[in-house]
Amino acid sequence: MTDLYDLTIDETRDLLKNGEISSTELTRSCLERIGSVEERVKAFVTVTGEAALEQARRSNCGTLSSDPSMPLNGVPMQIKDIMCTRGIPTTCSSRMLEDFVPIYDATAVERLYSQGAVLLGKGNMDEFAMGSSTENSAFFPSRNPWDLDRVPGGSSGGGAAAVAAGEAIYALGSDTGGSVRQPASFCGVVGMKPTYGLVSRFGLIAYASSLDQIGPITRDVTDCSLVLNAIAGHDPRDSNSIPHHVPDYTSALTGDIAGLRIGVPKEYFVEGMDDGVREALRKATSVLEGLGATLEEVSLPSTPYALACYYILALSESSANLARYDGVKYGFSYRDTDNMWEAMEKTRQYGFGAEVKRRIMLGTYALSAGYYDAYYLKAQKVRTLIRREFEEVMGSYDALVTPTAPTVAFRLGEKTEDPVQIYLGDVYTVPANVAGLPAISIPCGMSDGLPVGMQLIGSHLSEGALLRIAHAYEQATDWHSMRPQL
Ligand code: GLN
């Protein structure tokens, strides 16, 4: 039998329900796995072993486990360290918040708890979610379970690495420009960024508020639907939350995509892409055709501007959002002076890492008088163009298919000298954030022994259609069942 830590949520359901395994056994199995591989993978900032076993004990005693509407009951998971967890440090992988202990739970976390979820600990990430490799974590980089010399992607790299390595059954990440999908792609797991506003941002520490969304990182598409079911839905505590009736996403998993129309945006298949990624995508699209979907080339001409647009908007918003870390209310505080201004300066000088400071400076510049029109305002206009272009094309298609990232996982240190090289890797993921659209990454092949991800982008609130296509593809292939040897 497979080790318990390697099961999917869906596979644990019957076992837990029939009493063949207990949540305590499942949780112990994950904790033991953490014990044996975490030293190499470094996916966690904090492991909450005792608390996890206590939550597991409670779920064993409860009656929830026999309730089919509670599929997450007793199942252990990891939460990215950017989501507030009451009584548990929430650091954003930053010195600034190293000692910050929230007094409340993020809505998404609260919803998982109300389903009986078991928290194993908090996931490592790029500091304040700024990055694509977890190398910007102020504590340590995480590593890719498929090749420990490579990055797991980022910024939710700890989540993707933990799920791929068997350290957690699933994880929650956040995605501002690709931070759930790109690490999922690098680690060979499933990652979804829902429609902007579908999952509450309450308790999610802000990076760029108009782009931030929480999303599931799982081992397959069924699990992704189960987690989305739990976390989606209106929350009055997030002013951008959509008052929308949330369907049961598992009912979309019919396996049938005959007759669906899928667009292949030609601007996403240009130079700069690894040959191995191109080849994997070519095969994946023919699998979709084999399942009866119609694939057609489409054009999104503003795509080349999406990356610049994203980096202006995200950095501008981040410069405003991170102004709150002044050493007064919470977080790190420099105390070795009587001068208030010096205290603030030193707090930010020592509390933030190099990439965060770079972004605050760039964002402040883009918003400053005299440059606002040329950068921020212009980027807002480009955003509108990109959104409209998607709306037009999506009118005729059920989804678009693209690679998730132009490359497979790169080596640690390979790109740290040149941040622009890292930014360029976000080229396929940022458009969905800029337009507020849902997108999912699923494993679709291997190149040089490393996983390749396929991205499906949908129209506003079309999560069901995306999950349906992704699930049908998954049924026809076994990339999702491959596990790294650790
Ligand atoms: N890599 C992108 C960035 O650095 C996206 C990060 C994210 O989605 N949080 O901004």
What does this structure look like?
- The structure is a single chain.
- The protein is an alpha/beta fold and 486 residues long.
- The protein has a domain at 4-259: Alpha-Beta Complex (Amidase signature (AS) enzymes), CATH 3.90.1300.
- The chain is 38% helix and 13% strand.
- The protein has an eleven-stranded mixed β-sheet with strand order 1-3-2-4-6-5-10-11-9-7-8, sandwiched between helices.
- Helix 2 (23-41) runs antiparallel to helix 3.
- The two termini are 18 Å apart.
- Bound molecules: glutamine (GLN).
- Glutamine binds at residues 129-132, 155, 175-179, 207, 314, 426.
Keywords, separated by commas or semicolons:
486 residues, 15 helices
In short:
Helix 4 links the parallel strand 2 and strand 3. Helix 2 runs antiparallel to helix 3, helix 5 runs parallel beside helix 6 and helix 9 packs across helix 12. The longest helix has 22 residues.
